[in-house]
Design brief:
The protein is α/β, with parallel strands linked by helices. It is about 40% helix and about 10% strand. The structure holds pyridoxal-5'-phosphate. The site of pyridoxal-5'-phosphate (PLP) has 14 residues, from helix 6.
Length: about 475
């Protein structure tokens, strides 16, 4: 097989094969272990010489599928509790397949009116879902890191403007970096975005009042008074170790008094707005200048998808848009999301967002989030009832931070023991959960965001952890 054109007749059988294979994979997710025995060794053993003459699409996909079936981490399944990783709802997966088939360039109206209009609708549906004010405009990104980047680019330009500098044109060299205040809950991706924007990671001040990093809001007031210049304040809606929130309303009061920019990272925590029992945690978010969240977390659309909202949405296009004679101009009133995104070449992520919201609506998402919050409480109850486990944090949302503490074990050995436990869980493969350091102590931090997760999955997590404590960790 040489020229792909000669493979055109295989399209039907290849796509049918892919659909069947994908269906089998997704259907099996609820029963499969998260990682299959020996998969890493298999992967390491692959040798892949660059093919001189190819085998054609069906043979290639057959081999790919055999490898995927044997080694793919079932991270989109219900027992992957590591990071904060969602799966793909049926509607989102189906729409994602069509996204590849349609292969729209979601740059501008001129390249795809279909993708442009659906992104406009999807962004507005998301805004409505999270009950953000109508003034907010937004854009889809690859994830929360780039959503933070886009929103903080708008903040950077606002900051330059307040100091009389057009940073897009002049850069920031004439300015000394802004004060960027946050708590210990600040996610590394926001730090990364600040670095990429040239704002200086060293200008971040973490105003913390305790060992776990809670926001010292009184100190924020003092720091902003002392600093005296426009500042950027980042509030965190959902901290990755415990799901805790910065006190957004109190922060918004201080920010307003000092005319600072308030950015809220709600990568997964923004979804607390959908559950009556957790909504109060998000109070004040509607007063922010920018808010971001992820799609591939709690929205359960396939990787990659995030979104950024900015209140003064005109700032979005001013922050990143650079024209060229062959491109549409800013005067074009059609939606042109490539103007406000960091990349010009963009996948039509809106299709999966649109389809999943169309399929399940506000009610469906609210029910799913509430189910996950109830599962997190169930997990916390099981941890509290287990004599060899110790919960390290309250459970305001969907993450339960705990560690093994077998009776009679001294405090000194616990970090090492929990590190070994994390490795044992990973090697076991039935469930996946990550380790972290919380308040200076090594802990596990399962997060529940997958649309398929049920009580039996959470119970298996506890059973596996406790089994491994006795069989693998305690000598
Ligand atoms: C609070 C928070 N912000 C940002 C991110 C970065 O998200 P992404 O990996 O989608 O870029 C994460 C990821 O876990 C997160 O939890």
């Amino acid at each position: 097989m040489a020229d792909p054109l000669a493979d055109r007749d295989a399209l039907d059988s290849t796509l049918e094969f892919a659909a069947n294979e994908a269906r089998r994979y997704v259907e099996a997710l609820s029963g499969d272990p998260v990682s299959l025995d020996g998969s890493e060794a298999i992967i390491e053993g692959w040798s892949d010489p660059m093919p001189e003459a190819g085998d054609g699409s069906l043979a290639a996909l057959r081999e790919l599928a055999a490898r995927g079936r044997e080694t793919a981490m079932r991270s989109s399944g219900p027992r992957f509790f590591h990071f904060v990783t969602g799966g793909g709802t049926p509607a989102a997966i189906g729409a994602d397949w069509l996204t590849s088939a349609y292969d729209q360039a979601a740059y501008a109206w001129a390249s795809s009116p279909f993708a442009a209009r659906l992104e406009q609708v999807a962004i507005d549906w998301l805004r409505q879902l999270f009950e953000l004010p109508a003034a907010f405009g937004g854009v889809l990104t690859t994830g929360a890191t780039m959503a933070n980047f886009v929103a903080l680019a708008a903040a950077r330009n606002w900051w330059g403007e307040r100091l009389g500098v057009d940073v897009e044109q002049e850069g920031i060299a004439s300015l000394s970096g802004p004060l960027i205040a946050s708590s210990g809950y600040l996610h590394p991706s926001a730090v990364q975005a600040i670095g990429m924007l040239g704002l200086g990671q060293g200008n971040i001040r973490r105003l913390v009042r305790d060992r776990v990093g809670r926001f010292d809001v009184e100190r924020l007031d003092r720091e902003l008074t002392l600093h005296g210049e426009p500042a950027i304040v980042i509030a965190n809606a959902g901290e990755v170790n415990s799901g805790d929130f910065d006190p957004i309303e109190a922060i918004a009061d201080v920010v307003e008094r000092h005319h600072a920019w308030l950015h809220v990272d709600g990568a997964f925590g923004l979804f607390a707005r959908l559950a009556p029992e957790a909504r109060r945690l998000t109070a004040g978010i509607e007063r922010a200048d920018s808010v971001i969240a992820d799609g591939h977390k709690w929205l359960n659309v396939p990787y990659d998808c995030g979104f950024a909202f900015v209140r003064q949405h005109g700032r979005l296009s001013r922050a990143l848009n650079v024209g060229a004679p062959y491109l549409p101009t800013a005067e074009d009133l059609h939606p042109n999301f490539g103007f406000i995104a960091p990349e010009n070449s963009r996948r039509a992520r809106a299709l999966a967002v649109w389809a999943t919201l169309r399929a399940y609506g506000r009610v469906g998402y609210s029910q799913m989030v509430q189910r996950h919050l109830a599962l997190a409480q169930h997990l916390a109850d099981r941890v509290d009832a287990a004599p060899d486990l110790e919960r390290l944090a309250d459970v305001p949302l969907n993450i339960v931070c705990f560690r093994a503490r077998p009776p009679g074990t001294s405090e000194e050995g616990l970090d090492e023991l929990n590190q070994r436990l994390g490795e044992a869980v990973r090697a076991d493969g039935r469930v996946c959960v990550g380790t972290t350091t919380y308040g200076g102590r090594v802990a596990l931090r399962p997060a529940i965001v997958n649309w398929q997760t049920e009580e039996r999955d959470v119970d298996l997590l506890v059973d596996v952890v406790r089994e491994l404590i006795t069989t693998r960790v305690v000598e």
